[in-house]
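queue> pop job 88
queue> type: inverse folding (structure -> sequence)
queue> payload:
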């Protein structure tokens, strides 16, 4: 499940940039390739899950606006990593900020509101030991 949709990418970056990012080298820039954008959003969501699964059950249902924005930033990076395109310094900075946010979630210094963390309990099961059922080789 992708944390963002095509409409979120258009809202965040505009159609012109998405047309540029999804047009193959040497082709006319007429329309965006929606399947490339969907694939990039899927890759970005998988990357987010890698950070989130340490603290939360993934995929996260009802992602926050921040999660949608981070997914768009990561998908944009995926779209611009091509031989004929190069991510700008602003894209690099945005990706670095997004990864820093995800790393903070992974470490527990940031929590996602409304979600119950997993694997964070401090109670561990206690195992009581007992005497062996036999001694000296006898049952």
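queue> result:
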């Amino acid at each position: 499940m992708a944390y963002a949709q095509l409409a979120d990418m258009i809202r965040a970056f505009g159609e012109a940039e998405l047309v540029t990012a999804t047009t193959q080298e040497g082709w006319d820039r007429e329309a965006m390739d929606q399947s490339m954008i969907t694939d990039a959003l899927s890759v970005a969501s998988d990357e987010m899950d890698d950070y989130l699964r340490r603290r939360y059950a993934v995929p996260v249902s009802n992602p926050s606006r921040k999660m949608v924005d981070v997914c768009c930033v990561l998908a944009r990076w995926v779209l611009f990593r091509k031989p004929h395109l190069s991510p700008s310094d602003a894209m690099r900075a945005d990706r670095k900020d997004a990864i820093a946010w995800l790393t903070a979630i992974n470490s527990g210094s940031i929590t996602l509101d409304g979600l119950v963390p997993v694997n964070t309990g401090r109670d561990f099961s206690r195992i009581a030991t007992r005497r062996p059922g036999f001694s000296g080789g006898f049952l």
